[in-house]
Amino acid sequence: MIGYYIIAGIIFLVSMYVSNKLKSKFKKYSQIHLQNGMSGKEIAEKMLADNGITDVQVISTPGQLTDHYHPGKKTVNLSEPVYMQRNAAAAAVAAHECGHAIQHARAYSWLKFRSAIVPAVSVASKLSNFVIMAGLVLTFATSMTGLGNTLFLVGIILFATTTAFAFITLPVEFDASKRALAWLENENMLTQQEHDGAKDALKWAARTYVVAALGSLATLLYFISMFLGGRD
User: Could you give the residue numbers annotated as active site?
Assistant: First the structure.
């Protein structure tokens, strides 16, 4: 298990670096106030209207970096700072979340696929670590090697489901940012400085998903190598 802890430690450090970098970027671009004077809420409502979407509501949600689009309720949920503030960071996040609403309205294939597997992934994420640990304990600490290997394999399959979900999320997030930046530019919503800030903020936000996906893949490969090694 030493190898697992090393991998987990590296993933944690990289994730912390990217997370801290993201927070510093958003703090920086929160100081670039929009010349158009629009709040994140107003940016979101205009982007939805410009794309002919009238059945999605823009609402405020508590916390920071809690922004998300809820396809079931058809709400663009903006964190309180993004909802109220009038800066490049707020514009970037608001437009990005509206990008997800547009994906939903246009039946974007990757979003449909991700939404379809959410129930299975939810179950897999809750069970995978427990099943893997149970398999390892039975394999190495008892004489029930056969049952332990079977449980370990089931746990790996469950974990693989969550890893696949992490990679499926990437095109969804990249596309939402692409739609956001294209609209902000085409509608001349931002100055060049504001647009550059919004683009950089979304770039670092996307990197958090990349790190999460790669970390999940590295862990999955380690578990697979353990399983195959235990069968030798």
Answer: 97
Separation CA 215–CA 10 (nearest Å): 9
Q: Packing angle between helix 88-105 and helix 40-50, nearest 10 degrees?
A: 30
Reduced to 3 states, what is the DSSP secondary structure of residue 61?
Answer: strand
Distance CA 63, CA 83 (A): 11
| Nearest by Cα to 74 from 104, 114, 43, 119 | 104
Classify residue 51 as exposed, middle or buried by CB count within 10 Å of its CB (0-12, 13-18, 19+). middle
Task: For 151-172, write each residue's pLDDT tens digit.
Answer: 999 999 999 999 999 999 999 9
User: What is the value of pTM for the model shown?
Assistant: 0.89
Burial of 67 (0-12, 13-18, 19+ CB in 10 A): buried
- Cα distance between residue 188 and residue 178, in whole Å: 15
Cα 213 to Cα 72: distance, rounded to the nearest angstrom: 25
Per-residue pLDDT of 104-125, as tens digits, reads 999 999 999 999 999 999 999 9
DSSP code string of 74-86: TEEEEEHHHHH--
